Amino acid sequence: MVTQIDGLRYEIEVHRASSMPVEPDVAIGRLTRMDAIGAKHISEASLASARNRLARLERALRRIDTDPDFGLCSGCEEPIPLKRLIVMPESPLCVRCAEG
Fold it and tell me: Cα 50 vs. chain centroid, distance in angstroms?
């Protein structure tokens, strides 16, 4: 989980840099400017997604040691399979409840 958190922090920095405003006085051409604005919006959406997942992972990391229900599905109260917790440690649901 710590590796995922570190990766997300790096990803956030990359997206933050690429979501800077496109300056109107830079002579890059109309179509290229539209492409840059489109790429900026994609980076902003990716930045928001990465920030949200980072917050969920950090909460899960704190819960591991403090919450006796960590690893139990909040839907059916059965243990969440270890493989799912490895891939998505922030998930409060088992696969069956998440799909339902």
Answer: 3
Domain positions in the chain: 1-66, 69-100
pLDDT tens by residue, 61-99: 999 989 999 999 999 999 999 999 999 999 999 999 999
> Which whole-number Å values give the CA distances from 27 to 23, 33, 39, 42, in the listed order?
9, 9, 17, 22
Per DSSP, the residues of 39-81 read: HHHHHHHHHHHHHHHHHHHHHHHHHHHH-TTTTB-TTT-SBPP
**Alpha-carbon torsion (66, 69, 74, 78), positive or negative:** positive
Q: pLDDT band at residue 2, thresholds of 50, 70 and 90?
A: confident
Judge whether residue 26 has pLDDT over 60: no
